[in-house]
Structure formats: C-alpha cells, structure tokens
Amino acid sequence: MATSFSCSASTKLTWIFALLLILATMIQVRAQPPTAGFVNIDCGWTNSSAYIDNATRIVYRFDGESVEGGLSHEISEELMAGAANEQQKTLRSFPDGSRNCYTLTSIVGKKYLLRALFTYGNYDGLNKTMDGSPFLFGLHIGVNFWESVNLTNTDPSDTVWKEVITVAPSNAVSVCLINFGSGTPFISALELRPLEDTMYPFVNTSVSISNFQRFRFGNVTDPITRYPTDNYDRFWERWPDTSYPWINLNTNNKVESLDNVFNVPADILQKASTIDTNYSHMSVIVATGRNQDGKSLQLLPIFHFADINESNLSRRFDIYNAEGLLFPDFSPLRFQMVSKYKSGEFLHADAFFNLSKTPSSSLPPLINALEVYSLIRMDNLTTDSDDANYIKEVKTHYSLAQRNWNGDPCSPREYSWEGLTCDYSKSNQNPRIVTVNLSTSRLRGGFAISFMNMTSLENLDLSHNNLTGAIPDYQLQSLKFLDLSNNKLDGAIPDSILQRFQAGSLDLRLEGNPVCSNVKDTYCSKKKNTTSTVLIAVIVPVVLVSLLVVMGILWKLYREGKSGDDEDSAMYEEETPLHIDIRRFTYAELKHITNDFQSIVGKGGFGTVYHGTLENDDEVAVKVLMETSIAESTDFLPEVQTLSKVHHKNLVTLQGYCQNKKCLALVYDFMPRGNLQQLLRGGDYSLNWEQRLHIALDAAQGLEYLHELCTPSIVHRDVKTPNILLDKNLVGIISDFGLSRAFNDAHTHISTAAAAGTPGYIDPEYHASYQITVKTDVYSFGIVLLEIITGQPPLLMDPQTVHLPNWVRRKIAMGSIHDVVDKRLMDQYDASSLQSVVDLAMNCVENAAVDRPTMTVVATRLKGLLPAVSSEKQSVSATPRRTYSMDSEIPRQFQMMISGASNEGSSFQSGYTNGMSQMSLLSGR
Ligand SMILES: *[C@@H]1O[C@H](CO)[C@@H](O)[C@H](O)[C@H]1NC(C)=O
Ligand SMILES: *[C@@H]1O[C@H](CO)[C@@H](O)[C@H](O)[C@H]1NC(C)=O
Ligand SMILES: *[C@@H]1O[C@H](CO)[C@@H](O)[C@H](O)[C@H]1NC(C)=O
Ligand SMILES: *[C@@H]1O[C@H](CO)[C@@H](O)[C@H](O)[C@H]1NC(C)=O
Ligand SMILES: *[C@@H]1O[C@H](CO)[C@@H](O)[C@H](O)[C@H]1NC(C)=O
Ligand SMILES: *[C@@H]1O[C@H](CO)[C@@H](O)[C@H](O)[C@H]1NC(C)=O
Ligand SMILES: *[C@@H]1O[C@H](CO)[C@@H](O)[C@H](O)[C@H]1NC(C)=O
Q1: Rounded to an integer, what distance in angstroms lies between the CA atom of residue 634 and that of residue 688?
Q2: What is the largest CA-CA distance in the chain?
Q3: Could you tell me which residues are annotated as the binding site for ATP?
Q4: Is any ligand 2 atom within 6 A of the Cβ of residue 396?
Q5: Is the CB of 450 under 6 A from ligand 6?
Q6: Residue 627 has what pLDDT?
Q7: For residue 122, which atom of ligand 2 is closest to its CA?
Q8: Does ligand 3 lie within 6 Å of residue 144's CB atom?
Q9: What percent of the chain stands above pLDDT 90?
Q10: Which atom of ligand 1 is nearest to the CA of 52?
Q11: Residue 751 contacts by C-beta under 8 Å, 6 or more apart in sequence?
Q12: CB 418 within 8 A of CB 464
C-alpha cells in the first residue's frame, strides 16, 4: 500500500535536522507553539527518563508503557554516528507473534495525526534491507489495515515514515505491526498530534486518511517543514524542482487564512511556485513509489492557493487530473488562502495534476501547497467493549503477558487472540467472545471472576492448570460448557452450577480436582472421549456420500461416453407426462433460432443466455441451463408448468422450453434494454430519478403478483438487479423467478447448504433458519431499492467489503441523506421523495422479517411517490447536463507525461524522497 516517502537519513536528515535546529534556536526567541497533547514515543529507548529532542525541543519518552513484548535494539555502531536524532538510534523489534500493538492514550472522538517512523539501521547485523530478499511488514490502525512498510532495497540508514489522520475510537489509539513473514517488524518512533475537530472534515470514525504526499512550493530551504512552523507537526516536503521555467514567489506580507479546515502555516502561504509567462501548463506528477500501490488506492487531493503577486493582472486556471477536469476556471485570491478539494470524494486515478491557464487569464497558474491522501476505511468492528475489558482483566489476573494477547481480542478475525472464539455473525454488531480456551496455560490462583460478566461466553476451558480455591457462584445463563478438570480446586461446588448441570444445560468437567475426592457424580468421573464418536458420526456419512457422488459421476461419464458421440441423440425427445401449454422446442430448433448459439446476451447463475429470433420474427432470449443434472430432477417440468401459467406485465413471459438429455433451456421474451444492474452501473445511459422510481414500482408489482396472486405463493428467492430486465420502454420486468427453487431442490441430495440468493441480497433470517418466505424477497428488494437510489453495488469493495445498507446508514449518520444519492443523477432528484424511498428501502431490509412490509405495501408506497416526481420532470429535462469534457489536448499530454515519467523519471528525482515524487513541465500551446 501507500504513502510515505523514505529518506536517506544519515546524510540528509542530519542536515535537515541541523537546519531545524538553527530554525528552532531562532524561534526560541519567540515562544514555541504549544505541544500540549503531543505524544512522543522513542521506541526501544530503554531509559525511563524523558529527553528533549535537540532540534524540535519536543519531549520524547520510552515506550515501556505503551507496548508489551518486543525487544529493544540500537542501530549498528557504524550508523550510530550519522544518526540525525535520538529516535533513529533505537528501535523495538517484534520477532514473536503475528500482530503486536502499541496503545497510545487519547481522547475519545478526537481527531489525531499519527506518525510512525522506521529506521532499520542494520540493528541485527543481518543487512536485511540489502540482502536481496523482500523485507516488508504491515501496519494496522486499530483493527483496520493502514498500509505496508516496504524496506526492500533501502539504504539501512533511510528513515521511512507513515502518517494517518484518524479519529480516536475510544480512550486509546492502537497501532499494530503485522508480521507478513518477510522480515521481523520493528518501529523507531511513534508520534501522536491532536488536530482541531474542524480540520479534515471528511475524516470520521469510519474514514481515516493516510498521507500519500504533502508538498510545499516556492524557494524553501528546509527539505521538510514541520513543528514548530506547523503547529500540528505535519511533515511538508519541499517541492523538488525550482529550476527554470519554474519561478518562485515569496512575500513578507501577511496572507490571510480564514479557514480552519487545514490551518496551513503562514510561512507556507507566503511562498508559491508559478511558471514563466511563456508557458501555460504546470504539471504536478506524484509517481507511486515502493510503498505505493497507486492503482488500488483512492486518492483525495487538496490544493492550497494564495496569490502573492502584487500585480492586478488576472490569474485563472483549470485544474485537471488524469481523468478530467477537477476544478474549472479557478482564480486564487490575493493574499488570502483558498483550498480546493472535494470533500470525501476519493479518486481512483493516479496522482497526476495539471494546472492549465485559461485563455482569458493574463498570468500563468500558481500553487502554494498540495496534500494528497489515500482512503482507509475503518469498517472492521472492534470487540464488544465489555467483553474486551473482561478478557483484559482475565489477562491481568493470570499474568498472561507472554501469550501475545494484545490488540483487539476478536478483530480482525485472522489476528484474534489465540484460545478465543468469537461470534461475528451479526454483521453490524461488535464481535462477541463465545469461547475461552486457557487449557494448559499454567494458570494459578483463584477463578477469575471477570469470566462471570462475559454475557455471551458459552465455552470455558480452564483444564490442566493449577487453579485453587472454589468455583464462584456462577450465574451465567449463556455458559454451556465448563471444563475445570485437572486443577487444584477444593471448595464446594455452588448450587447454581449444580442445578444447571442437573438440568442438562451445562456440561461440567471437574475430574482431577481435590473436590472430586469424595464426589461420585458424573462430572467428577473421567468420561470417555465423546469426540471420536462425534467424528465417526460425521466422517462416515461424509465419506459415504462422497463415494456415492463419485460413483454417480463415473456412471454418468460412462453413459455419456457411450451415447455422447452420437450427434443424433441431441434430437431425441423424451415424453413428458405433464401437460404444459407452452411450446416445447427441440435442440435443433434452438440451434436454428439462435443461429447456432452465436450471440450471447448474458451469463447468469443458471447458464448462458443467447439471443434468438423465432419464425415470426419475434425476438427471444434462450437461456441454456448449465447443469444437465436438473433434467433428471423431477422438479424441472412441474416448475416449467407453473411458470407457464404466470402472466403479468412485470414478469417475463416464458415462451417455451426444451428438455432432454442434450438440451435444457427456457425461452423467454427478449428484453432489448438489458438489465437494471447494467443500466445503473455501466454504459453511457443514465436513468433519471423518475425512471428509477418507475422501475422500482414495476419490480414491486411483479413481486406482489408472485406473492399475493399466485397460489401457492411463488417466492422468487433471487431478487437482484441483474434479474430485473427492461423492455424497450424501460418497463421493469422480473426474470428468473422459480428457477432458484428448481435448482436448489434438485441438489439437495448433494448440498444441503445451497444458499438461496446472491451474496449481498440474502435475508439475514435465512442464515439463521433456512426458511424461505415472501419476506426473503422483500429483503432483497430493499437492497435493489438502495442500489436504485445510490447506484452502488450491494457489497462495496473499496477496499474491503461493506454491505450497502450499512454504507447508507453511515453516510446518513456522517453527513446527510443527500450523500447517498447516485452521483450520476447530477443532483436532479426530488428531495422529499428521496427521504421516503430511503425509508422504505431501510424498512425492507429490517433484520426481522416481521418488521418488513409486504410487497403490496411496498408497491402502494412507491405508487404514492410517483405523481410528485412527475411534476419535477420538466425542470429536470430543462436543466442541461453538465459536461466535464477535457481540453482535447490534455489527454495526449498526460499520455506523454506518463510515458515520459518512466524513462526520464530519474532525472527529476527528488533527493529526499528516493524518486517518489517527480515533476515535469509541459511547454505552452
Ligand atoms: C543534544 O546536543 C548536545 C550538544 O550538541 C549533545 O551533547 C546531546 O547528546 C544531544 N542530545 C541528544 C538527545 O541528542
Ligand atoms: C549488505 O549487502 C549488500 C548487498 O549484498 C552489500 O553490498 C553490503 O556491503 C552489505 N553491507 C553490510 C554492512 O554487510
Ligand atoms: C477486516 O477484517 C477482515 C477479516 O478479518 C480482514 O480480512 C480485512 O482485511 C479487514 N479489513 C481491514 C480494512 O483491515
Ligand atoms: C532561494 O533563496 C535563496 C535565499 O533565501 C537564494 O539565495 C536563492 O538564490 C534562491 N533560489 C532560487 C532558485 O530562487
Ligand atoms: C517492495 O519494494 C521493492 C523494491 O522497490 C519492490 O520490488 C517490491 O515489489 C515491493 N513490494 C511490495 C509488496 O510492494
Ligand atoms: C460484573 O457486573 C456487575 C454488575 O453488572 C458488577 O457489579 C461487577 O463488578 C462486575 N464484575 C466484574 C468482575 O467486573
Ligand atoms: C502446577 O504447579 C506445579 C508446581 O508449581 C508445577 O510443577 C506443575 O507443572 C503445575 N501444573 C500445571 C498443570 O501447570
């Protein structure tokens, strides 16, 4: 992943810090800005007394109180002399454990800048950065992935830093080092800086940002500007190129900054870069470096401008990125700062920016500073805070520090504490601890009472330890299994436990304890191992079923081998005992009407769909079902018979079918406008608000018919946008109903867990009960409705999965309901109907089926929304669509720059960033 630059520390940082020292001494005359709230940790520093950093005058402390485990080291003797500061000289490495965390005290809900610094310094004498093998490890911020630190092929004296801006989720911020198996993770320093709440407003509890680039422009002496120039101690790198035709501007006049969003230091605003007036484009290209996987990042650029030229000539320019115009016709204000950014809008494009003079402008573009951040989604939930606190008490109680129990107990799942099992099944609730296994853990002393307050604990195994005393009076209702065997417990067994044991609700094991010396109850007798019986009970049927399946497949292959070469068998038609009113096609006919299966119009879960034309020129869609095994199922034809009787304007009409050994297909009316998913997320046609509501109503009416007017009700089971087709008038038509059932039932003898539906659309109650009801469809329809509103897929994958309803809830909680609306609507929608549709959708996706409305209610509510929208229509169509067409010259120029960057990149390399920042310049038109 992304961000940070690495710096050659020994030489360069030395004089950076020397310069800072001079600066600091100069500034000492004035008062330094406050460092209240700064947390400064020199990792691996063994002396518990704090020291004052010579350059910044900031007080650093040792890391003993913020971390468990790890080993302190000093960098190698020969690099020690070149170290620019004390923090570079020591570090803490973590050879044990896949995750090791630092915990820094913070104020809950406060925004912070957190920086981690890494100087390898060949501390272990293994020359790890230069030995040719990969050397990298990961960083987590809390329970979410932040980025990786890649030190492969770096000079051992280099310092790499990573910065994140985040909101403290509790009274502690944790940073974890993740062992990727490519070298021992280590860290040299950690710095936490409180920010104002107004700053970086797009950062909140669910969004953090990682620093990708932060530059200042103009003729700047310090390669890095930080505290005390910047009160918040951000690292601003000097823009590397100041040679002609770049021109540096500076002023001693005060530059006003009315903004409290970025609080850019005054010193930075008093300097700027522009270009010679013969030129009109200024390009700022920030190439991706070793730690930056630019393609997968989502970037947010923030530009800071203040015109510091005295002249009154006009200065106007457009700001482009590689994909198009970001900010048209911008004119910086004189001696006043303006920041340009799109709040919360992260771009998938690379960090290529072009400032391009507009034709009317007299002066070329100018820039003072640029920040680029990458998005970190903070989607992973932390463990239920009570559970977390109690298990931490257990850890303290039994002095379990050596177990490498640190960070969050359950989250992220792959780093959960060894011996714990957690319940993650409730997708928007914090994980709960259900099992604690501390068997054979050298526990001594009494039974930790904290276990008693863990309300979802079901299994507790403390066997084979040295626990003494009595079992406390344990009231826990959730506990099902308590293994205390082979300890030294000798107190009486409390009644509460005995009662639950006798009622059969608790499996108790106490054998091997002194208390059993005169008790003869079963919990005191050594039980025979039931696990093996269970295993036999599970394994034998599994093996048998597998054998049967294999034999079945072999038999089928054998039969096909005998008949398969025979082309004519394709023509063979079986008799069907059922009377079905629709046309039965032969394979040859299907081949003919689809022109030998030439034109594929879609591929779905059940097979491939081909375009076909009947003898009467009617267009049809021929769905050739993938699994021929269904042909042998007795469910297919009854299903076809049912479907052939379903007629509704919003349900696709089944024209015919084909069923025999070689052919299993359904023939439907052809829908020329494709499906709703394609219309919402692909292509060049964008549906307007009213069309969207109409399609939603169409689909709702189709489902209502299946649910209410068919007897017995037909549950679609796979309602999703790809199954909502559109005819030539954009009327929504539901397809694929009934099919899921035929398929799932056909397969029950192999796979009982065949899920109904598609991930993202599945009713949470279905997971619990495997019951399919009409409300299952209502849930899926709610997801469809949210897709219609937001244009987003049911599971957003950037960069990790979030379910659409949660995304919508979060957006609304963070900002306003308008933030959820599909950008393709260009703000053209009816705000009052928006609220109602979102409410309706959220109502449909209630966890409990009983809370969801019926499709009849849904259809009625949607119908109620439509007239109001119709009157809106005139204003919608009257508004010209904004176009973001780029200057025709520019794409080509970006092309040049991109290709140029790889060849000539090195000549533009900045000495301080190991080639991670580059600049280039285009000649004028
Ligand atoms: C600070 O500088 C002084 C003199 O230059 C030096 O003796 C001292 O060791 C330095 N302290 C640290 C913590 O670097
Ligand atoms: C580290 O390895 C590189 C490449 O193998 C070698 O050139 C260098 O001398 C080594 N440095 C040390 C201190 O061993
Ligand atoms: C969240 O947790 C999942 C499962 O443990 C993990 O795969 C994923 O990487 C985590 N996401 C982030 C952003 O860390
Ligand atoms: C930058 O400023 C210094 C003095 O502060 C001056 O000596 C130097 O020539 C300037 N360089 C450029 C490229 O303007
Ligand atoms: C780490 O950096 C090295 C050297 O720049 C590069 O070859 C490698 O691909 C990087 N690894 C990752 C995982 O980014
Ligand atoms: C458990 O909870 C009760 C009440 O909720 C509280 O009084 C008690 O102190 C808690 N016990 C522990 C060990 O935290
Ligand atoms: C219990 O303590 C004794 C003596 O301290 C020790 O020898 C024994 O190994 C311990 N047993 C377990 C199961 O930890």
Answers
A1: 44
A2: 101
A3: 623
A4: no
A5: yes
A6: 59
A7: 13
A8: yes
A9: 42
A10: 13
A11: none
A12: no
The position carrying tokens 């900045």 is 910
CA of 462 to the centre of ligand 3 (A): 30
| Domains of the chain listed by start with CATH number | 31-195 (2.60.120.430), 199-379+880-925 (no CATH), 385-517 (3.80.10.10), 575-669 (3.30.200.20), 676-870 (1.10.510.10)
Name residue 208's beta-bridge partners. 376
pLDDT of 382-437, one tens digit each? 999 999 999 999 999 998 876 778 899 999 999 999 999 999 988 789 999 999 99
Q: Is 413 in the pocket of ligand 3 (CB under 6 A)?
A: yes
Asked if residue 453 has its Cβ within 6 Å of ligand 6, the reply is yes
pTM for this prediction = 0.60
Q: What number does the ligand 5 atom closest to the CA of 289 have?
A: 5
How far apart are the CA of 151 and the centre of ligand 5, in A?
Answer: 8
Distance CA 628, CA 230 (A): 69
Give 113's strand partners.
165, 193
Cα separation, 225 vs 268, in Å, equals 9
Task: Compute the distance between CA of residue 144 and CA of residue 800 in angstroms, rounded to an integer.
Answer: 10
* Residues noted as catalytic: 718
Question: How many Å lie between the centroid of ligand 6 and the Cα of residue 453?
Answer: 6
Report the distance separating Cα 790 and Cα 785, nearest Å: 9
Per-residue model confidence as pLDDT tens digits over 655-686: 888 887 777 888 988 888 888 988 888 766 77
The residue contributing the CA closest to ligand 3 atom 12 is: 144
Ligand of minimum distance to the alpha carbon of 467: 7
Q: In the structure, which protein residues have their CB atom closer than 6 angstroms to any atom of ligand 1? A: 51, 54, 86
- Residue 552 in 3-state DSSP? helix
pLDDT score of 41 more than 90: yes
Average pLDDT over residues 766-794: 87
Which of the residue ranges 4-18, 173-187, 824-838, 904-918 would you say has the lowest mean pLDDT? 904-918
873-905 in b/e form (b: 16+ CB < 10 A) is: eeebeeeeeeeeebbeebeebbeebeeebeeee
**Is the peptide bond preceding residue 799 cis, with omega within 30 degrees of 0?**
yes
**Beta carbon of 242 within 6 Å of any ligand 4 atom:** yes
* Total residue length of the chain: 925
Best of 453, 457, 477 for a ligand 6 pocket test (most atoms within 8 Å of beta carbon): 453
Tokens linked to 557 = 């292959």
Query: 729 by DSSP, 3-state: which?
Result: coil
Q: Atom 8 in ligand 4: which residue has the minimum CA distance?
A: 219
Q: How far is the CA of 389 from the centre of ligand 2 (A)?
A: 47
For residue range 209-263, list pLDDT tens digits in order. 999 889 999 999 989 999 999 999 999 999 887 777 889 999 999 999 888 899 9
